[in-house]
Design brief:
binds nicotinamide-adenine-dinucleotide; alpha/beta; glutamate dehydrogenase (NAD+) activity; 7-stranded mixed sheet; 475 residues; Rossmann fold
């Protein structure tokens, strides 16, 4: 039993150690994979409101077994080296698990973005990007950031523009960062990608009846009661899609200023609109509000989705968590100590390195799009439609010939004729990735008696792939 709570990085290391103990890695390779290669700390000044403000930022590179390395940039007051290194390590395992050809990295800036005006944030972001880019810590071939907590399309567009200004002849400059807006080299479906990935992950879980049984659940997502923590980018999209498209009921929403609870279900879009207007969930009419938000993590539900920040399920509250299934939409929401408690009580955890990999998967598609300088589907869409037209023409001929005996289903023609656009292709690639990665984890889980949970299974699959890359490099 883990007595004291380890730090976030120690937690990730403990989970890593649990997996490698069941593997047969060559001597020394385990240590090489585990350690973080380098962490760069930068302190820079920006003149704002008549005085110089000094900011501290980090960019950590965990593993360069594949390059570029990839990982988001987070803006939060609590950002620190331990956190950034833990997140960079998770990126290595995440990319390996979903077969995105990247090493792991992560960045962070100690800042509360809500303390600054938009034009001030732009100045700060551009200066941070300059400091990283001049050391190749932002670079299309070496290090490619993306959004994370507190950052989004807007910040990524500033970073891309800053890099382009510093590298005016680099034809691939746009590939230096992902998560950009569509009009600045982004890709359709990136904003929703991580939440969409959580939805696809749960759908795949429910396609495995044996796994569903381990969680003491039955059936499909339809009617399942879900509590979500954090209605930001990831939590909002996951909760919205699961309720609008899969029939799940969002019974609880936990935010900074407390939690909403309604056993009959809460309309996610209405809560999101409420937060935009009022700055928090307090006062939302169609649910009971409790100021002690974190306590709602312990309410009865079928699925718990922590989608805000790390360490929210710890040795302090793990034993009281009643959800039989937890999907880690955030990075590191369950500490190593809590993980052990949950395993012992039979809770099934779909781990972060898989559950939130939708973001990096679609980032990979965006990077490929930027390097190929063409939108997905541009070449083949109309050709695909023309071929489908041939089939429809033949079916219409048959329809006329058979008269009343047979006719085409009314919307078949319209649905079948339409060639896939970029968004559909991105969703299809994401769905395929999430399904395949789940299958590799689940297979590992069930094929060995000593692998008793999905997290260990995911780590083994990922570490094995990283080890193969190192071996291929002669390390
Ligand atoms: P975000 O900033 O868009 O949203 C975070 C949300 O959590 C906000 O609504 C915030 O108000 C809420 N929150 C903050 N502190 C809280 C608290 N104590 N209790 C309840 N709610 C709180 O961030 P995001 O991009 O959605 O990221 C959330 C998590 O998902 C992070 O762990 C991040 O690392 C992870 N993640 C994000 C992406 C991505 O593509 N954005 C990809 C992979 C993983």
């Amino acid at each position: 039993m883990i007595q004291a709570e380890p730090s976030f990085r120690e937690s990730v290391d403990l989970m890593f150690n649990r997996a490698v103990a069941l593997m047969d890695l060559p001597p020394g390779l385990e240590e090489k994979i585990r350690v973080c290669n380098a962490t760069y700390t930068v302190r820079f000044g920006v003149r704002l409101r008549g005085q110089v403000h000094t900011f501290t930022g980090y960019r950590s590179v965990h593993s360069e077994h594949m390059e570029p390395v990839k990982g988001g940039i987070r803006y939060a007051p609590e950002v620190n080296q331990d956190e950034v290194e833990a997140l960079a390590a998770l990126m290595t395992y995440k990319c390996a698990l979903v077969e995105a050809p990247f090493g792991g990295s992560k960045g962070g800036l100690c800042i509360n973005p809500r303390d600054f005006e938009e034009h001030e944030l732009e100045q700060i972001t551009r200066r941070f990007a300059y400091e990283l880019a001049k050391r190749d810590l932002i670079h299309p071939a070496q290090n490619v950031p993306a959004p994370d907590m507190g950052t989004g399309e807007r910040e990524m567009a500033w970073i891309a523009d800053q890099y382009a200004r510093m590298n005016t002849t680099d034809i691939n400059a746009r590939a230096c960062v992902t998560g950009k807006p569509p009009n600045a080299g982004g890709i359709a479906g990136r904003v929703e990608a991580t939440g969409r990935g959580v939805q696809y992950a749960l759908r795949e879980f429910f396609r495995h009846p044996d796994d569903v049984k381990v969680a003491k659940l039955k059936g499909t997502l339809d009617g399942k009661r879900i509590i979500v923590q954090g209605l930001g980018n990831v939590g909002y999209h996951a909760a919205k899609f699961l309720s609008e498209e899969d029939g799940a009921l969002i019974t609880g929403i936990i935010e900074r200023d407390g939690a909403l609870f309604n056993p009959k279900g809460i309309n996610v879009q209405e809560v999101r609109n409420w937060i935009t207007r009022h700055g928090g969930v307090t006062g939302f009419p169609d649910a009971t509000h409790s100021a002690e938000g974190a306590a709602v993590l312990e309410e009865e539900c079928d699925i718990l989705i922590p989608a805000a920040l790390e360490g929210v399920i710890s040795i302090e509250n793990a034993a009281r968590i009643r959800a039989p299934l937890i999907i880690e939409a955030a990075n590191g929401p369950i500490t190593a100590g809590a993980d052990q408690i949950l395993r012992e009580k039979g809770t099934v955890v779909i781990p972060d390195l898989y559950a939130n990999a939708g973001g990096v998967t679609v980032s990979y598609f965006e990077w490929v799009k930027n390097l190929s300088h063409i939108r997905f589907g541009r070449l083949q869409r109309r050709q695909e439609e023309a071929r489908h037209q041939l089939v429809v023409d033949e079916l219409e001929r048959l329809d006329r010939y058979l008269g009343d005996a047979w006719s085409m289903t009314p919307d078949f023609k319209q649905k079948y004729l339409r060639g896939a656009d970029e968004l559909e292709l991105v969703r299809s690639g994401l769905d395929d990735t999430m399904r395949t990665a789940y299958q590799s984890m689940s297979e590992m889980w069930h094929s060995r008696d000593d692998v008793t949970d999905l997290r260990t299974a995911g780590f083994i699959v990922a570490i094995d792939r990283v080890a193969s890359s190192y071996r291929a490099k002669g390390i």
